[in-house]
Amino acid sequence: MAGDLDDLPIRERLQHWVEHLCHILPAQAPIRDFVHHNTLHGFQHLPFPEALAAARRLSGAQVYWSEANFQAAYAAGRIGPADLQAALDDAGLAGLDTEVIRGLHRRDILAASLLEPLTPPTANREAWAERETGGLPDPIFAISSTLTAGIAQDVPTSWEVAALARWNALCGRVGRDWTLRSLLEYLSGEDVLEKVRSSLQRHLAAHLDLGVAAWRNPAQGQGFFAAWRASAGQDLAWEIDDLHSVREEIVHLPEQAIDVLVDELGRLLPDQQLWPGYLERLALEQPGWAGMFLWRDRHPEGGDGTNVAMLDYLAVRVLLERLLCEDLIRRLTGVAMGFDELRGYFTSELAEFAVRDALRRGELNEELQHRAARLLEPDEHAPVDDAAWAALAASIAASRQATAPAVAARRLAGLLGQLALTPAEAAGLSPDDAVVLLAVADSLDELARGQVWLLAYERHYREQLFAALTANQSRQYSPPIPSAQIIMCMDDREEGTRRHIEEIAPDIATYGAAGFFGVPIYWQGLDDADKTALCPVVVQPTHLVRETAAPGAEAALASHAARREKRLRWRERLYQSTRRSALGGPLLSSLAAVPALAALTATTLAPGWFGEALQRWRRGYEGPVASRLALNAASGEAGTPSAPQAGFSDAEQVDRVAAFLRMIGLRGGFAPLVLLLGHGSGSRNNPHLSAYDCGACSGRHGGPNARVFATMANRPEVRRGLAERGLCIPENTWFVAAEHNTCDDTIAWYDLDGVPEPLQAALDKLLQQLSEACRAHAAERCRRLASAPFKPSPWQARQHVVGRGHDISQARPELGHATNAAAFIGRRQMSRGLFLDRRVFLISYDPTRDDDGGIVENILLAAGPVGAGIALEYYFSTVDNERFGCGSKITHNITGLFGVMEGADSDLRTGLPWQMVEIHEPMRLLVVVEQTPAVLTAILQRQPPLQELIDNAWIVLASKCPFTAGIALYCPRRGWLPWSGSAVLPQVAQSAAWFAGESGPLPPAVILGAHA
Amino acid sequence: MNPLLHSLSDAIWLVPALPLLAVVVTAARVLLGRAVGDAAEPLTAHLASLAAFAGLVLLLAIDGLALAHGAPGHRRLGHWFGSGNWEATFSFLLDPLSLSISTLTALIGWLVIRFSANYLHREAGFHRFFIALSFFLAGIQLVLLAGNGLLAFVGWEMCGVSSFLLIGYAWQRPVATGNALFAFITNRGGDAGFLLALGLAAAWLGGFEWTALSRASQISVVNDRLLVIGFVIAALAKSAQLPFTPWITRALEGPTPSSAIFYGAVMVHAGVYLLLRLEPLLLQVPDVMFGLVLAGALTALYAWLCGLVQSDVKSALVFATVFQVALMFVEIGLGWTTLALVHLCLHAAWRAWHFLLAPSWLVLTRQRPPPPPAWLCRSQLLYTAALQRFWLDKLSEILLVKPTVSFARDVRGLEEHFIDHAIGQPGQGQAVHAERPLVLADGLPGRALAAVSDALQRIENRLLLRGRGGTAEKLLHRLGSYLRTLEGLLEQPRYLMMAVMATFVVIL
What we know:
The complex is a heterodimer. By secondary structure, chain A is α/β, with parallel strands linked by helices. Helices cover about 50% and strands about 10% of the residues of chain A. Chain A has 39 helices and 24 strands. In chain A, helix 11 (about 225-230) runs parallel beside helix 17, helix 14 (about 255-270) packs parallel to helix 17 and helix 37 (about 935-940) crosses helix 38 (about 945-950). By secondary structure, chain B is mainly α. A two-stranded antiparallel ribbon of chain B has the order 1-2. A two-stranded antiparallel ribbon of chain B has the order 3-4.
């Protein structure tokens, strides 16, 4: 990266480096706008395994599920031996079928090594286990011990040579994957950042704050560096911490952050080549804070007008790093010195380094550890003399034993056990065979093992899905004359709703599409103070749709708005004054105490009842307002994202409706009622609220889009325009819109008063069928919720989920996308009648009317990134919830209205909370498209964004032939691989019969009752 | 007294005992490995909730009867230990003060337990959390209902321990454990005050019973002042008033419900309750009351200023809490104890709700709260001080923790250089006599033992083996009579008391 940048002036180079930080820091927006995205978005240009390896190098995070989990899945039959073998092939390992030693092939040995832990238990643990269990002597282990007895360990000639090499290696890491602070922490055990971490976090939170603090730093307007400097220059903490010259230095700093940054980097590390790497490491020490700072730097519109510049942050971090490290070095060595001098110091004080190093590595026995710790203890009065260090270093060197043979013996024994060798066969092996066996097993490193396990895990589920699709090929069904058509979001959670509707009403046809229904809009509802974008994040809407009072309801709206404003103002006053106002606080809190206690009691005892009652009271107080959409624009003046056009012109409306209906393959055979069902999630006391909402609407509710679409499609002008384009919608067809609350499985309907009289009966029936389906769906969801009743009736289930949605104590109001695993793009016939366990995004598409693949190309471009974003965010938050996720919700503490900390003093936590991913099975999204491989290949060749996703294997693509049962899997390395497997599937009468009493993930099944 | 009320108030010990029973049962299940998986959670949560609910019902019944027939007052349920003219009893004081706060606490405790059952579902520390929470409920009820200082002190300590356990709930995080330890150590300062006051009460008032405090007018003002100051220190520490405030601002590492009940609703008010309980004593010493006003006013100012700059919700709420608790101290100092009581109850109820809704802050608020006056806004120094919380936690680190660490190091040095050598270490023994290489000894005891065994062998050889009537028998008889005299002495109350107190000091 540094190469061609070297000639640029330092300022421009710094800008480049900051730009680069965007790739490695979390890119999460303030938490109100939580949108799922690939956690490793900055590595998306790399193939999946390489990107994961790079991320692991950079942050040290786990990038695959832990082997213990995979091994448990293997034991539970969720990964089979065949999957493991196929995964070895898929991983592209060479020479799998060569015979390593008599009768044992390389693939067998690798498969066996995967089932054994990479690091065997330590000798002490083994000895303990043997004492505890009084274990029987293991003949295989005895044989292994003799076989490996000769394995030598490289013992260096003298400890001085080893220590010098080690010291140079450690120094080489500074600027690459370490900062000077990390090196010093390794040497001394003291983390210099700890001294200022709390205070720095307070400054950062205060600067970024979007509305918690009443009092801001007086110098805040001049940027973070100036604000920090103004405060730090007056801070007594430096003196308290014995850092006496620091305040003086801060006061005399240059005015400009960039000058400080360049000066201090120079003092910290003379070698400019290392600067970019060093800044990267420094930013990654508090990834949450640095990421939020950078996000605000890059998205000034997302803030409150505060000047946020990443260079300010880096300047402060580098300055603190230099000041604090200098202090620690002075305490360690007795002299103030820079990094280069420190390097020289320990090169001459090798004995001291050797002792420190041995202590950190944790390889000392108790007595030596004790002695080393005593020597390390800082004691101003009696500095340790060199002789003591040398003596201890020598005794440490003497105490090193050759542990290699014992470790190798345990690994070999495990391997032979997995290979199912009898003691007699094992005895026939030679020591050379043992070395070869172990070498083969070692040829897979930790990451390669993780990759093979992941491939095997994905394959197991993929085989089940392919079998299900094949089994369903002969049963394809769609209602010949549908009584209603329901278009829902592609969301995996809606798979359940759709299945239940189809089971309850076999004459209803369902469709799925990205939940903004082809109308990207800015939306401003009656109660909204500002407009919000309702469309995927990558799209910028150019149209604004407002909700206005229906004719004649203007007075009602005025009174509603006034009362609502009054209610919100009092609520605001109540919660804010009781915490900050000196006079009003005690008074208001005394007044509110009794109602608060009553509310707490009520919501604890009957959350559902209380929540619904509260909603009723609120609605009753504010008064209902009949509303309409301000949808129609006079002419199509092109709007821009910053100045959107109000409404859509007739031609635009016709465009939108026609394009959407064509996309989902609904071109004729319209039912009397066409329902557009958006979705959102309502829960209480949940900072991650928007992570449960519609991903295709930027983490908002998709109901308004449904309503806009239905209103458009019902207009006679639009119908005429559609007819001109050959899309004839019968006059007696009516579009209805509603929003599905995925948390409590209720449905809010829009504009039902406009439905023509002759359709009322059909509408009533649809309403009733849909609520029945929602109840059945609630019962299905309850099976994964531990606090739900066991095998609930649909009504019990409904009660439970309604209570859950209103419960302030519920950390899992719903499970979100926790079960997502695959996506189908094609006609519903291919999956209708299958139980897919709410694991599949269902996107409607008719391949028979799309010969050149133009429609599916657009679907892939729009839905691909959304689905991949959701799946990959869940993937990474699951495999390492500490680094990529945000840990458990229960200690979360909202900070500055932009994020959460753990407790009151931690890094800002990004990603998904543990409660959301707890039951997730981390795998990449499998996208099955009902289109021929040839068409898909052509699309892939002309679309770089899809190449990045699919050729780099961030998602897995498969083709399902539209006319036959043929399925082919796309492998970036080997091209299209036709699938052949058995298509035997369990058959059940109804979904309920398959999931009743089950609480774990379920394989697909054929639902016999789903077809009329 | 109404017979029903009589028997109900005799059962008051159940209010702290039932949560304690829940603790014992849950802890036993954890120890026996029975508390594993989803299936084990409901039992733990139900036990805790049932214990709290039973306490609430009992208290409500007593409240109802007390409204009709008058509060039962001081109830002595049993003898604990005692000597001479004083005794420690199991006694409870059921007056309007304790009954009102105790009922409110039982209600909040029950609701928070119900809240936590959902909130902590599938947490690794689920059972641990409920053990600590029930233990706290038992402790705080003991503080509130106890009829004497000694019993209240036991409860006081139980609250401290459970607070420590819950701040350190996320023990994997060094910040959490560090803060837990900090809170624990700071609170020991308050305990010293409490213990001092208890000792003085026993000496001057002849007992620990709260009723004895009404005799406060019989002792001199100087003694009274010393006694009260001990209790006031305890109250300041528990209620996080200056100079003890830093511990509570660092105590927000636990799960939200525990923050709500400890630092929002209940425990933070324990100090206020203690002072309300000591009202008769306080009235004797107007200068201490003035001190309370001063401490309260300073804390209020401190908390108000710090609260203005907080940018995370839980910290903002905890400063708001400290602010109002400080006002209660002012009210008590001014002698408005009824106002303080009402304020306490209302504040506890509101703050429980406020804290439990902390995760809703994104929904509850729309805009930044109005800024403080412009002159304050412009002051960079005050802003820095408020942001750094007036450096109090750094200072207490320097004044409290560092000296403790140095002291510990000195003690270890002493042990390594002298005591270890004196005591000797296993496996380091050397032969005592060249002619008996099997007898190895190291350190004083080892050598002493070797010497004793030598001597005994000599005794055996020379005296005992020479038959009855020898010197040994005479010596033994004399020794026996000495021991009898010693036993007689030890049975005297003053020595027994010393032994008991020594035991207490060792335990605490």
